[in-house]
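Researcher: Structure prediction, please.
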Amino acid sequence: MAEQELLLPSTEYLKSGIHIGTKFRTKYMARFIYKTRPDGLSVMNLQQIDERIKIAANFLSQYEPQEILVIGRRENAWKPLKALGKATGIQVIPGRYAPGMLTNPQLEIYVEPKIIVVVDAIPDKNAVYDANRVGIPVIGVCDTNNQTNNLDLVLPANNKGKKSLGLLFYLLATGFLRKKGTLGPNEQLKETIEEFTEQ
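Model: Predicted structure follows.
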């Protein structure tokens, strides 16, 4: 794939470690894995990551920000999620998903999103389960150790690293706003990539 077709130069992707998976790989994620390094870590295909970020941004842009809910229990996702919410107006839950939030109208915290995004289907499994119960689509950021059977769209990426998650949500925010027409084709977000990334 030509470099200019990627959302960012491949060196930027590589610096963030977005393509570095775990030593454990599931059959679900095998098609996204490019190779296994000598140290046993799986390496995901950058072009597929880039392509899936575009698809996810496109998919999300069919909804209004208040109809989208992004959930991330993993602490490294909290800063990127808050930055995503600030940049786009999308609802975010950095931290623990409260059971029943999507299923129990009696709760004060009850919400009715039309789509959810989870940072990792393992710690965010309750949100995935509830979304499946109420029949709303789920986009899941998946590392090489994830199962994908309850997800509607798999976003392959390192979902554990601070820089990786920061870059991923920066690109999703940018893509979402461009598709919505609130950001010009060559315009950059007001928020810098550093605001999405833990140092």
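Model: The two ends are 31 Å apart (CA to CA).
Researcher: Thanks, that helps.
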